[in-house]
């Protein structure tokens, strides 16, 4: 590899329900074989209609109690609870939850920022790996290129400040690079050295996408990570998880 | 920003104790103002002599018990315990520890891969932010350029498979980008949205550095992240940490 390039995809419109995101990206960018296209999940979720309006939500008593004291809208907390498979930690109004996909993240991925309108919330895609696969098929159809796709979201981390973007959906990308059994230059066998390259790619894309610029996609060019893989493989299996 | 480039620094020799890493990088790469140079901590640790030889270690009984059954060298576990300020989780022989710096990571950052010789272990730098600052000063002196420096390591994460590289030392880089109070395009105030850009930069660099290629440094070009900041700011304060 000579170098890696991370190129923002500019000129995309605000995404609305029913939009063909692959078509919009193919029109806005020139793609090469081997590119990885990273798309912020909010663009995908909005296109897929994974948006709820607060006005349509009835908050439970539990949601009201969690929201109390912070001025948070109980209907927002209610939506978080509905998107949660399990609560991992709670310090009201902060809820760290495991989603149905197995992701552990703040608010079960429910987000009020960059929602299509005030008073609405964006949820995670129902099946982000399937979303990535559809985008990949759509991009291949429109460009003739073999492209990897990552759907990203900003997750907080245990023990560390700030969020980094990670892969919540992937298609056509080797998400984990396993060095197990390969040897470094002095011959030490690398035990259990597996690199979450899809998460590093998502984080690199975030650096050019930003939160406020209206750039919901970026191209990562110059990697050799084509392969099969799904972001669900990035979820630590419960039996190996020391922190679940 | 037009695009981000991540450029591996090739041609560096195997780093040895006493080496001037800034001099080696300045000789191997052409740097620009605003570049962020990411250096794998192992190169820094080796140059600083943060290496121990197993032959010099006497393993405690505790270390022997933790190592038992896995064929792990008790002296390696002993070194992990000595580098730990606190054990966070233990599933022998796996030890997740908090280091004196406050980092929570496997084996307290002690690593046997890429050590200078078989039978030796590489430790984390004593003060990685100070290491980064020295590298920054050295690079400025030799190149006349204003450069940011990140010292990186590969950390596992709770709940997710695989490691991503993160910043354990930083100088001349805004490590956290705080969007608190800024507004997204539809006017929703972003609450507590802080992006750990230094970790995303470290991860992007890992994508070109790899583990096996003998490339311990990379240049990240095209960001506007110059500023003051230290990797210690990335450690979640204990009173806010739900997972400590």
Plain-language structure description:
Two copies of one chain form a homodimer. The longest helix of chain A has 16 residues, at 128-143. Chain A has helices at residues 21-28, 41-47, 61-67, 74-83, 128-143, 197-209, and strands at residues 4-8, 36-40, 51-53, 84-91, 94-99, 104-106, 120-122, 148-157, 160-171, 177-178, 194-195, 217-221. The termini of chain A are far apart. Chain A has two domains: 1-49 and 125-235, 60s Ribosomal Protein L30, Chain: A, CATH 3.30.1330.100; 51-123, CofE-like domain (CofE-like fold). Chain A is 25% helix and 26% strand. The model of chain A has no long low-confidence stretch (mean pLDDT 91). At the A-B interface, strand 1, strand 9, strand 11 and helix 6 of A face strand 1, strand 9, strand 11 and helix 6 of B.
Oligomeric composition of the shown chains: homodimer
**CATH-wise, what's the superfamily of the largest domain in chain A?**
CofE-like
- Work out the count of structural domains of chain A: 2
Structural class of chain A: alpha+beta
End-to-end C-alpha gap of chain A = 38 Å
Question: How is the largest sheet of chain A built, in terms of strand order?
Answer: 1-12-2-8-9
Short description:
By secondary structure, chain A is an alpha+beta fold. Chain A has helices spanning 21-28, 41-47, 61-67, 74-83, 128-143, 197-209; strands at residues 4-8, 36-40, 51-53, 84-91, 94-99, 104-106, 120-122, 148-157, 160-171, 177-178, 194-195, 217-221.
């Amino acid at each position: 590899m000579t170098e890696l390039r991370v190129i923002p995809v500019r000129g995309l419109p605000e995404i609305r329900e029913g939009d063909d995101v692959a078509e919009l990206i193919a029109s806005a960018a020139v793609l090469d074989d081997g590119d990885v296209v990273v798309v912020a999940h909010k663009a995908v979720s909005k296109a897929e209609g994974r948006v709820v309006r607060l006005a349509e939500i009835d908050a439970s008593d539990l949601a009201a109690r969690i929201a109390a004291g912070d001025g948070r809208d109980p209907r927002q907390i209610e939506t978080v609870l509905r998107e949660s498979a399990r609560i991992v930690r709670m310090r009201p109004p902060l809820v760290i939850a495991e989603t149905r996909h197995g992701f552990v993240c703040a608010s079960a991925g429910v987000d009020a920022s960059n929602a299509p309108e005030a008073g609405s919330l964006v949820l995670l895609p129902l099946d982000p790996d399937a979303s990535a696969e559809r985008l990949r098929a759509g991009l291949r159809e429109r460009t003739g290129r073999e492209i990897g796709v990552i759907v990203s979201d900003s997750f907080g981390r245990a023990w560390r400040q700030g969020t980094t973007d990670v892969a919540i959906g992937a298609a056509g990308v080797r998400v984990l690079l396993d060095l197990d059994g390969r040897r470094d230059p002095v011959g030490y066998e690398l035990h259990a050295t597996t690199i979450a390259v899809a998460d590093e790619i998502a984080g690199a894309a975030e650096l050019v996408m930003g939160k406020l610029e209206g750039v919901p996609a970026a191209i990562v060019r110059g990697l050799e990570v084509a392969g099969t893989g799904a972001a669900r493989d990035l979820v630590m299996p419960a039996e190996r998880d020391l922190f679940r």
